[in-house]
Design a protein that fits this description.
Elements: H1 3-13, H2 18-31, H3 33-40, H4 49-56, H5 63-98, H6 107-114, H7 121-131
Helix pairs in contact: 1-4, 1-5, 2-5, 5-7
C-alpha cells in the first residue's frame, strides 16, 4: 500500500463517527499489532507520530496488516463516495428543510427522515441507497 493511502486511511479513521471509528480502528490495530510492536514500539502516539511510523515501514508490514489497511481504505473509499452522493442529492433538501440543524451525530439525517414526505425523489433515493431508511 502506498504511503498516501496509509495516511488517508488513518487520517479518515479519526474523522469518522465514534463507534464506527472505534470498530475500524480496533480492527486495524488488532491486525497490525505485531507490526506496531516490531516497528513502532518506541513511538509515543499522538500528533501523527504512529501514523508516520507505519508509513515509514509500509514495505515491511505483514500481509495481515497490509490487508487490514487495504480493507479499511476500501471501506473508507466507499464511505466517501456515499457521503458525496448523499450530499449532492440532498443539498437542496438539507438547505430547505434542515438548514438550522447543527451537523453531526446523525442530526441532519434525522431531520431529513422526519421530513421524508417533503423530500425530493433524488434525496429520498440517496437516503435509501446509503443508509437504507
Amino acid at each position: 500500500m502506498k504511503r498516501p493511502a496509509i495516511l488517508a486511511v488513518i487520517g479518515i479513521l479519526w474523522a469518522m463517527p465514534a463507534t464506527a471509528q472505534e470498530d475500524l480502528l480496533d480492527y486495524v490495530v488488532s491486525a497490525c499489532e505485531k507490526d506496531l510492536v516490531q516497528f513502532c514500539s518506541t513511538v509515543n502516539p499522538g500528533e501523527g507520530r504512529l501514523l508516520h511510523c507505519v508509513a515509514a515501514h509500509e514495505d515491511q508490514l505483514s500481509g495481515q496488516c497490509a490487508y487490514a489497511l487495504y480493507q479499511a481504505a476500501t471501506l473508507l473509499d466507499q464511505l466517501a463516495a456515499a457521503i458525496g452522493y448523499f450530499a449532492e442529492s440532498c443539498a437542496a433538501d438539507i438547505k430547505t428543510h434542515c438548514g438550522d440543524v447543527l451537523p453531526g451525530e446523525g442530526r441532519v439525517l434525522a431531520c431529513l427522515t422526519d421530513k421524508e414526505e417533503s423530500l425530493t425523489a433524488a434525496c429520498s433515493q440517496a437516503i435509501e441507497d446509503t443508509v437504507g431508511q
